[in-house]
Design goal:
Elements (H helix, E strand, L loop, with lengths): L12 H12 L6 E5 L6 H13 L14 H7 L6 E3 L9 H10 L10 E5 L7 H12 L5 E7 L7 H4 L3 E4 L5 H10 L4 H10 L4 H10 L1 H13 L8 H13 L5 H19 L12 H7 L5 H19 L4 H12 L1
Parallel strand pairs: 1-4, 1-5, 2-3, 3-4
Helix pairs in contact: 4-5, 7-8, 8-9, 10-11, 10-12, 11-15, 12-14, 14-15
């Protein structure tokens, strides 16, 4: 059973303080916009806050008591007054917003506050966002809406103006690496994931679970040891392309990781190895910096951008990888 506590969430001290003060000063807003990087605790804090304001025996410092009937329902994701609106497919549709608005015509089932969480507001279609505006401005009594968005997302100004913005920040890389080490990840890979994820423990854990770093290492080390004059090079490239093409939605992430490595190669060539992110491929960077000139590296970066454009046009994934890997030799 999950323990819900402000202390259980790593970092985000400013966000916690703002929400605690709102409760202490009896100034809870009707609508919040949690804004910051992906994977730094926005959804988790929304749930903790919802449990806190509905707890029958709240603890000022740590939040929910975790013992009352309301807290137990939040712990098991079974509270009838905690509503989460996830994207239907790739977006939040207007039909979902209309259904939500209809359900809000009725009072909360049992809680002091009904909390509606929209964890991916950047996935909301414009017509759905416009439909939500009236509810954001004048929500039903005892209803709080919490919207979550990436810091780079283009959120309608009319939504921003109707919400109290709670800022979220990347976690320190050292802290992310420590958490990953607790998951059983090796120190070098943990350092690499922390740097690549830019302080997002959620993204770092996702990359770890997909084993994309190990596949990236396999691709780079094989390509660096291969050249077109080697009779086996074609077989090696085709095998790597076939393996990569099977990634489906993770292929774009793999291409981004390859691009990060080439960016690190540029930094290494310019004698700034302390600025690299690919700590797991430090030896490969030293080897590769003597293989290509800067213009050749930039050309390979362009080839990855070209592959990503083709991927967005739903071209054959295996063929995209095959052409790209030959271009990276």
């Amino acid at each position: 059973m999950n323990i819900l506590s402000f202390d259980s969430l790593i970092g985000q001290d400013k966000a916690k303080k703002l929400l605690k003060n709102a409760v202490t000063n009896h100034k809870i807003s009707h609508a919040y916009l949690f804004k910051g990087p992906t994977g730094v605790g926005k959804k988790s804090l929304a749930k903790i806050f919802a449990a806190y304001i509905n707890c029958s025996s709240p603890i000022a410092k740590t939040g929910p008591c975790n013992n009352c009937p309301s807290c137990r329902k939040f712990q098991t994701d079974n509270h009838p007054d905690f509503i989460i609106i996830e994207p239907d497919g790739v977006s939040i549709k207007i039909s979902q917003v209309r259904e939500l608005k209809h359900s809000l015509n009725f009072p909360p089932y049992e809680a002091a506050y009904r909390v509606v969480l929209l964890p991916d507001i950047q996935a909301m279609r414009r017509e759905a966002a416009n439909s939500l505006l009236k509810t954001l401005e004048e929500p039903p009594p005892n209803t709080i809406l919490i919207l979550c968005a990436d810091e780079a997302s283009n959120i309608l100004p009319t939504i921003n103006s109707r919400c109290q913005i709670i800022p979220f920040f990347p976690l320190p890389y050292e802290q992310v690496a420590q958490l990953l080490a607790q998951d059983g990840i090796s120190p070098v890979e943990a350092d690499t994931l922390a740097a690549i994820s830019e302080g997002s423990i959620g993204r770092a854990r996702l990359l770890a679970s997909n084993e994309l770093l190990s596949l990236r290492r396999e691709i780079i080390e094989n390509l660096l040891q291969t050249n077109l004059n080697n009779p086996e090079s074609t077989e090696i490239v085709i095998a790597l392309a076939e393996k990569s093409g099977k990634l489906k939605e993770d292929l774009s992430e793999l291409l981004d990781l390859l691009k990060i490595w080439l960016r690190d190669l540029v930094v290494t060539v310019n004698a700034r190895p302390d600025k690299t992110l690919s700590r797991d491929l430090a030896s490969a960077l030293q080897f590769a910096k003597n293989r290509w000139t800067l213009p050749e590296i930039y050309h390979r970066l362009e080839q990855i951008d070209r592959a990503k454009r083709q991927l967005n046009r739903n071209c054959n994934r295996g063929l995209i990888c095959e052409v790209l890997f030959f271009a990276l030799l």
